[in-house]
Amino acid sequence: MPRTLSLTPAHIARVHRAVPDTGPPPGMVLHTDADYAEWVARMLATAPAGPLRLFAYGSLIWKPEIAHTAECPATAHGWHRSFCLRMIRFRATPDCPGLMMALDRGGSCKGILYDLPAVDPGPLLDRLFRREFTVKPINSMPRWISVNTAAGPATALAFVMNRASPAYMGRLPLADQADMLSRACGYWGSGAEYLMNTVTHLEQRGIHDSGLWALQRLVAARIDAAD
Asked: What is the pLDDT of residues 204-217, one digit of tens each?
């Protein structure tokens, strides 16, 4: 029987507000075209033989940036989903910071393994990298990781948290995560919307993340209490 989320579109509507994009805050340094080209070259130089694969654990499941030719469930051991990346733009603002999910060390994470098209991979990775990381020092760092599938082990590209980043928040208590996600909103939408979309699409793929499930209950309760 499908589970019913506590966090609903009605909650999202109450959190949403129109927020203009005022651009990068003062002091924020962005990656340049040359930086992205260097990352693409670096990752291709260390890529495994065979088709390129991408491990999706969050928004790449419900909003893929690039086309893929096949997909299957996969588990990454040694990594877990975590709202550990502090945000002040996109789904937050400097005066009301939010959180974004990242792949942090420890535990395990069930996700989706995508096979990428067998074409020139450079433009594909460039487009993907421009979506996944924008600021310096890098937050979501591209890395080749090992994953397990029903057909056996595979090596896939994933975006993992750079713990040296000043935006890394560590293991925040769920209550603190809920406080931030229930309030933050930027020109891309709210943190609560991001959470609801992620949990919903994971459940549709048969992936139940108990931590995220508890978090969405807390965020819904925070929004209700604020009203």
From this structure: 999 999 999 999 99
